[in-house]
Design a protein that fits this description.
- 40% of the residues lie in helices and 14% in strands.
- The protein is of the alpha/beta class.
- The protein has a 7-stranded parallel beta sheet, sandwiched between helices.
- The longest helix has 26 residues.
- The radius of gyration is 19 Å and the shape is globular.
Length: 262
């Protein structure tokens, strides 16, 4: 008597918001390599499809504006299951002093970094509670713990992201759901500074000028892979990661570093 073939167990599922470019795309690729099916979510279909195409069969695209409550609720619930949530959607706009701040830019930063994190987390928690691997990773920033001139709106928004993480850990205490707040320093990606500086490529290049090895998106993705891969009873509350060339957010060494390579 032959035993009928059985289907292989489903791979665990990760949802990565802001997954089309930069850190989000790198995180999606890392989690797929670690054995997850990944849903890359974001507002723009083209970069999402490009990222999913690179990852291959274990990625799917979800066009999603994280600031739209109805769409978030429908889309996340429609996944049916979820093991890992990476709230990566966000970003910075402008470098104005507070007295010159643009209310529209501040509203957009709060909407994506704070409201979006809350909405997606709220929709995802019922699914996460059913998973033995339930983990929420919120992508904050060192701007979520310190301030600098010209960063008032962004630092306020990222402080909001980090406070959501800290509050969630209190509210979920006694449950098996892990919550990690990752706070990267200077990360050189294609779009972050370009978007912040209103599409000015020369200004965006000056942000990283002379910095010997700023972080890459893949470096941050390594951090996500690390915290997700730990045993479920181990929670990394906060992970701060900077390039060696950066001390606090406003102190960046511009010049070569002797790496003592062999």
């Amino acid at each position: 008597m032959t035993t009928p073939p059985t289907e292989p167990p489903a791979r665990p599922l990760a949802l990565v918001t802001g997954g089309g470019t930069g850190i989000g795309a790198a995180v999606a690729g890392r989690l797929a390599a670690d054995g997850f099916d990944v849903v890359v979510a974001g507002r723009r279909r083209e970069p999402l499809e490009r990222t999913a195409g690179v990852i291959g069969e274990h990625a799917q695209v979800l066009v999603l504006d994280v600031t739209d409550p109805d769409r978030v609720g429908q889309a996340v619930t429609g996944l049916g299951r979820l093991d890992i949530l990476v709230n990566n959607a966000g970003g910075a706009l402008g470098t104005s002093r507070i007295e010159d701040g643009d209310p529209a830019e501040w509203q957009q930063m709060f909407a994506s970094n704070v409201l979006g994190t809350m909405l997606v987390t709220k929709a995802a928690l019922p699914l996460l509670r059913r998973s033995p691997r339930a983990t929420i990773v919120n992508m904050s920033s060192i701007a979520g713990q310190s301030v600098y001139v010209g960063g008032g709106g962004y630092t306020a928004a990222k402080h909001g992201t980090s406070v959501i993480s800290e509050t969630l850990r209190l509210e979920l205490n006694g449950e098996h759901v892990r919550v990690c707040d990752i706070r990267p320093g200077m990360v050189h990606t294609e779009e972050f500074s370009l978007t912040r500086l209103h599409g000015d490529p020369a200004a965006a290049d000056r942000v990283y000028a002379g910095v010997d090895h700023p972080l890459r998106a893949e470096d941050v993705a390594e951090c996500v892979g690390f915290v997700v891969g730990l045993p479920q009873h181990v929670n990394v509350d906060t992970l701060v990661v900077r390039p060696v060339a950066q001390s606090p957010s406003h102190d960046v060494h511009r010049g070569p570093i002797d790496w003592k390579t062999t």
